[in-house]
Amino acid sequence: MSVSLILLPLAVAAVAATHGATAGRDREGHVVCEVQTRMRDETLLVAALRDTDAAVVAERGEITADWAGVCAVFRRAEDGIWSAHFTGDVDERRAVEAVRAIDAAYGRQVQRAVLERLREQAPAAGLRLESEQVTEDAAVRLVFAVEGRS
Fold first, then answer.
1. Are 5 and 81 in contact (CB under 8 A)?
2. Measuring CA to CA, which of 36, 118, 123, 146 is 20 to 30 A from 68?
């Protein structure tokens, strides 16, 4: 089976939802549907795919992710919106579930990148990290002290 998904940025997805975005078929008969996502950064997407235990190859503007029995090819259109074409042992439900898992992994990658940037840039801003706490829901609370200013 073959399924193609259009990975809409969350802001675009909200507008599309009000205009009745639905699943359909392309010229080759593949199921095509739209899925809300926050994925923009290619490096973070590759890391997120690896977090879902995919074997990943990224080259020439295309990312291929391979799981046991399922393969997905991600391409970015000129407007910056990613699409994913799934082949193998997959149906629409499984493809959407896979994208949601990838999106969750992507969110964790974004969080990691932001935390790393905060830790790196804090000293230059006159801040010292006092404490860091990770909550049950994986939220991170950082407490910074302002370095002595007179």
1. no
2. 36
- The span from the CA of 63 to the CA of 129, in Å, is 37
Euclidean distance between CA atoms 70 and 49, whole angstroms: 13
pTM value is: 0.75
| 24 contacts: CB under 8 Å, gap ≥ 6 | 31, 32, 33
Sign of the C-alpha dihedral computed for residues 88, 89, 91 and 95 taken in this order: negative
Alpha helices in 7-144 (DSSP H): 10-18, 42-51, 92-121
The C-alpha atoms of residue 56 and residue 87 are separated, in whole angstroms, by 15
> Per-residue pLDDT tens for 75-87?
888 877 788 888 8
Enclosing H/E stretch for 63: strand 62-67
Thinking of the domain 2-121, which architecture would CATH place it in? Answer: 2-Layer Sandwich (3.30)
Q: Are the CB atoms for 56 and 46 separated by under 8 Å?
A: yes
